[in-house]
BCCT family transporter (marine metagenome), 161 residues
Amino acid sequence: MSETERSLPVEDGPSIDLRVFLPSLIIVLIAGVYLVLAPDHAAAGASVWKTWVTVNFGWLFLLVAAATLGFCGWLALGRYGRVTLGDPGERPEFRELSWAGMMFTAGIGIGLVTWAFVEPVYYLMTPPMGIEAGTAAAMEWGHAYAQFHWGVVPWAFYALP
């Protein structure tokens, strides 16, 4: 029997890796019980952690976002941009324009369904960095945040699997 004629062993069903599943389950259960039994305390703790992470690591998020955009550009414009996925000589199922259209539509679709219209208003009413809600400054920040979330930079994340 040649190498290509061998078949993979068939399993009866999906298996669960208990080394991954059990610790994850325990963490989720502990967090869930804590959130149900002490929601105010949990919300205050989450707020403290969120503030600490954004104050201390906001720069890292921006750096990773810019690096991801640069990496996608390097992949697309470099020699790896011409690599064909699939069997040699196989034609792609979709043309590049169709694929780009599907990626664009999927990204825009999920964004429009969830946040695209709500986000500027959300930041107008709950602006960051101590800006007074409902002011012109809050409106500017709301639109700036929306541009950051819906502009070119996030598409680098959508382009990577």
About this structure: Residues 108 and 150 are 9 Å apart (CA to CA). The chain has two domains: 18-83, 95-161. The chain has a mean pLDDT of 87. The chain has six helices and no strands.
